[in-house]
Amino acid sequence: MGKVLIIGAGGVGTVVATKMAGLPEVFTEIMLASRTKSKCDVIAEKIGNNRVKTAQVDADNVPELVELIKSFGPDIVVNVALPYQDLHIMDACLETGVAYLDTANYEPLDEAKYEYKWQWAYHDKFKDAGITAILGCGFDPGVTSIYTAHAAKHHFDEIQYLDIVDCNGGDHGKAFATNFNPEINIREVTQKGKYWQDGKWVETEPHEIHKPLNYPNIGDRESYLIYHEELESLVKNFPTIKRARFWMTFGQEYLTHLRVIQNIGMAGIEPIMYEGKEIVPIQFLKAVLPDPGDLGENYTGETSIGCRIKGLKDGKEKTYYIYNNCSHQAAFEETGAQGVSYTTGVPATIGAMMYLQGLWKKAGVYNVEEFNPDPFMEKLNQLGLPWVEEHDIDLEL
Ligand code: NDP
């Protein structure tokens, strides 16, 4: 059906390449390119049968990207490198007329700020060029946004209260490690909290608001209100939402380590001089922390991510909870990567499939909730992330 170029050979890239390789009727040709080609080669070799071609690319270098895209000729580029590369890859897609998909919004290197404004500013350029860009097609953002679109389409006349709840109930056995790129992860969880209430953003101190929530098959976990990027597009695309919040679980051990890391300056994103060389503390920290890609082998437990929604249906108040639980071990056995990479890589694969099948194709830059959720929801059940719905229950929130 189509050719795909995957950029980024980390945990998520591993899952995307593995899943796509298993769907030859959709992904006829696959290329995996990244900064370090040897990492692509290891993944391709494991998949076998010469299913995946590999290449070296610096995704911050637009001419280099353009050359690679022109030589391979993909129908879509799946960006699972880091958020810093988003705009460069979008520029290269515009120049070559190729569709674009990512899982995390652009973030400037020197400022930990999660806003869609930079990518949304490309809308008219993509529209005029007749190219599709699909933003935020991981789990959160991604599946949580599609869950919301599904709820709006099938279960509510008006969504009023949205709480996205993200629990990692897994145990990787390390004193401290992050489940995806440490630099991006630490930048995300140490920023101030923010939620939407009655038409405006309310800011909180980091981890100021928290409460225990009960997660299916996991139990009670302390959950912290943090800002997460899908809130921005969801309140825009579902304007009936009065309040939108995002909750993530953290263990005490993780928070203690995080506090120490911050207090000693290791989470800093400003360069400092060390022995005559400029280094960025958080990038140095990344180099000494466990590689998230190596956590899979002994990872036990499950993730549980979903949306708890309250609103109106046929004039009556209704509550609704939709979620997926994903086992780290099952993810590792299938793809060699842990659950967080799996829950991100599977939706990216399905998003690219939606595009190639012509089901999610419109010129411009769109967040995933702006497409028809139905075919995507069906594929989630078939490709390893089945969802569960509960109606008229106590949402705890
Ligand atoms: P990793 O750090 O494991 O992998 C990132 C990959 O990108 C590495 O292979 C890295 O290369 C490559 N890369 C970095 N910079 C460049 C560059 N300039 N040119 C080419 N390649 C580059 O990250 P993850 O796999 O954990 O995460 C991938 C993406 O998924 C991130 O953007 C993350 O924010 C997002 N994500 C989204 C989630 C969601 O639910 N929406 C959840 C989790 C992650 P090298 O190996 O040389 O370092």
Structure notes:
The protein is 35% helix and 28% strand. The protein has 397 residues and is α/β, with parallel strands linked by helices. The strands form three sheets. Strands 7, 8, 9, 10, 11, 12, 15, 16 and 18 form a nine-stranded mixed β-sheet that branches. Strands 3-2-1-4-5-6-17 form a seven-stranded parallel β-sheet, with helices on both faces. The protein has a two-stranded antiparallel sheet with strand order 13-14. Helix 1 packs across helix 13 (339-356). The model has no long low-confidence stretch (mean pLDDT 96). The structure holds NADPH dihydro-nicotinamide-adenine-dinucleotide phosphate. The site of NADPH dihydro-nicotinamide-adenine-dinucleotide phosphate has 34 residues, from helix 1 and helix 13.
What portion of residues is helical? 25-40%
What overall geometry do the principal axes of the alpha carbons give?
globular
Oligomer state equals single chain
CATH topology of the largest domain: Dihydrodipicolinate Reductase, domain 2
Beta-strand percentage?
25-35%
* Poorly predicted runs: none
Distance between the amino and carboxyl termini: 44 Å
CATH-assigned homologous superfamily of the largest domain: Dihydrodipicolinate Reductase, domain 2
What is the count of β-strands? 18
- Kindly provide the radius of gyration, computed on alpha-carbon positions and rounded to a whole number of angstroms: 20 Å
| Domain unit count | 2
Main sheet specs: 9 strands, mixed
Hetero groups in this structure are: NADPH dihydro-nicotinamide-adenine-dinucleotide phosphate
Output the structural class: alpha/beta
Domain Saccharopine dehydrogenase-like C-terminal: 138-384
Protein name: Saccharopine dehydrogenase family protein
Pfam family, one: Sacchrp_dh_C
Domain Saccharopine dehydrogenase NADP binding: 4-134
